[in-house]
């Protein structure tokens, strides 16, 4: 098993964090700010190697197959990072979706950087800087699709001029930002599928682990819809909403931004919160859009159904607390979240709004809470069984990788590793074999850790830390 295979093991990745900020035009779409503190020594070294000082913007012409070139504004972060980023752009331009998205990035003058993006993000788009940053600490094979995802966010910013601010209701701002993320994720899924068709399956495998609902929807619709690409894209975008746990984690960042924005406003502004709403038809037309054409039609009602306009109970309670404080301070209250549908404690979406839910009897609520309970229990059992199985084979998998990666191991240890599968029938030598494996692992893990530090790749534990936190 390769290092990539282990990184892609289900359970090693729980979420691909990305998102859109709802409550302020100058906010960073993915919720992170580019780290710009570099030492003078590093600047001098990078300048000597690349001719560009770190932080300097330069223009790079890159071939866009099947012909012609595109100009990109790149913010330098050293010769090595700049070269990797240019190579990523070139690869992305080989697909139809990559050419469209990066073509718009080029035309709009949006800057690109391979740099620091935070410990739990693949990348982000900053509306303030009109710049895309891809995480330099992750293997570029895993972040290639991120470049396209964040590029789509930069296009959305220009397509939809009426961006969210404090005067829009919480429900309306959530509708917009969710649509933006669903569209960007659909675009990333489509791009990854195209890359797979060209022989590079890594982006698709990353998507399958991070967002299985979307890859399954895309593949199923390709099989059933054929050439009807609009239907494929629409159904894939709507599939984003079906992952309630993902949406719940995404909403957490929106709620935090909502709370922060309210705490910084004066009493006059607070008194006007919730006086405006986004036009759902306009959101569908301008956000769910590819190549300048709406792939989801013009009817915004698809963003107001129970399957798209829901809120988990934890999120609803957090919004209510914020509004309670808002009422105390300003006498104003944004009650728009009452119009959203309930997702119960089992992550099952109910055809009941919170306005109705709050008037239900305890007995009726208990009845609704049972929906999905058995399914969730089965899922928990399956997850426990999977984790136990994964732990039992992890040692063998790691030994297999070490066997491939380290040419200095002894011949006797190779033979020991190859006999791991027969360990159950070799009880007498089992303890000695395990001691050899443990000693080998301790030594080789140290070597691999040192090697990874030099090459910039990431270890399994780093990948787990990166992805187990809450995703332009």
Topology (elements, then pairings):
Blueprint: H1 3-7, H2 40-50, E1 57-63, E2 69-75, H3 79-92, H4 96-108, E3 111-115, E4 123-126, E5 131-135, H5 140-159, H6 170-197, H7 202-210, H8 212-225, H9 229-239, H10 244-263, H11 267-270, H12 280-287, E6 289-290, E7 293-294, E8 310-312, H13 313-330, E9 341-343, E10 349-353, H14 354-357, H15 362-369, H16 373-405, H17 411-418, H18 427-455, H19 460-467
Parallel strand pairs: 2-3, 3-5, 8-9
Antiparallel strand pairs: 1-2, 4-5, 6-7, 9-10
Report a brief summary of the structure.
By secondary structure, the protein is an alpha/beta fold. The protein has helices at 3-7, 40-50, 79-92, 96-108, 140-159, 170-197, 202-210, 212-225, 229-239, 244-263, 267-270, 280-287, 313-330, 354-357, 362-369, 373-405, 411-418, 427-455, 460-467; strands at 57-63, 69-75, 111-115, 123-126, 131-135, 289-290, 293-294, 310-312, 341-343, 349-353. It folds into two domains: 3-362, no CATH class; 372-403 and 441-465, no CATH class.
